[in-house]
Amino acid sequence: MGDLEWRLEFGVAALPALFFFLLLFTIPKSARWLAAKGQVAEAKAVLEKTGSECPDDELKSILSALDENQSSSTENLFQKMYSKPIFLAVSIAMFNQLSGINAITYYLSGIFVSAGFSKISGNLQAVAFGLMNLFATLLAMLSLIHI
After folding, report:
1. Domain spans of the chain?
2. pLDDT tens by residue, the chain, 147 residues
3. Residue 51: φ, ψ to 5°
4. Which of 22, 47, 103, 105 is a plausible cystine mate for 52, CB 3.0–4.6 Å?
């Protein structure tokens, strides 16, 4: 089973990646990007396709924001008023990497096997950990939507 085992693990991980890659071709272009490129009719069609309640108003909002951004595009990112959000973003990303959670998730099945679980049980617990991580991430994203 040795040579086949890593291939199966790789294949199981490759299936969702392939699925997401195929779904990538079904995603419509961004309405904002289309409007910035002068393709206003296509931008309105995308807004209608994605279920916008009032695509005309939203398109007007996008166009006015694009006009406003073009007039104030020389604004410097590194200003005093942006220092706290930039510091928080960099700090959170840095501490997320330095916490070591990636190393734990990479070697999780091996950790479970070293803790005395069987190889299959260790792999199943690693899958359960990944599903819980996915669930917690989705829950956090949903909570951000309602803020």
Report:
1. 27-75
2. 567 877 887 788 888 899 999 999 999 999 999 999 999 999 999 999 988 889 999 999 999 988 887 765 566 778 888 899 899 999 988 988 898 888 888 888 888 889 998 888 888 888 898 899 899 989 988 887 765
3. 90, 30
4. 47
Residue 42 sits at φ, ψ, to 5 deg, of: -65, -35
Tracing tokens 């994605």 back to the chain, one arrives at: 50
Report the helix count and the strand count for the chain, using DSSP H and E: 8, 0
Structure tokens at 80: 């005093």
**CA distances in angstroms from 120 to 100, 110, 130, 146, listed in the order given:** 24, 11, 15, 39
Assigned token pair, 56: 């005309």
| Integer Cα distance of 63 and 69 in angstroms | 10
Q: Is the pTM of this model over 0.70?
A: no
Among 130, 81, 59, 79, smallest CA distance to 101 is for 130
Residue pointed to by tokens 């085992």: 5
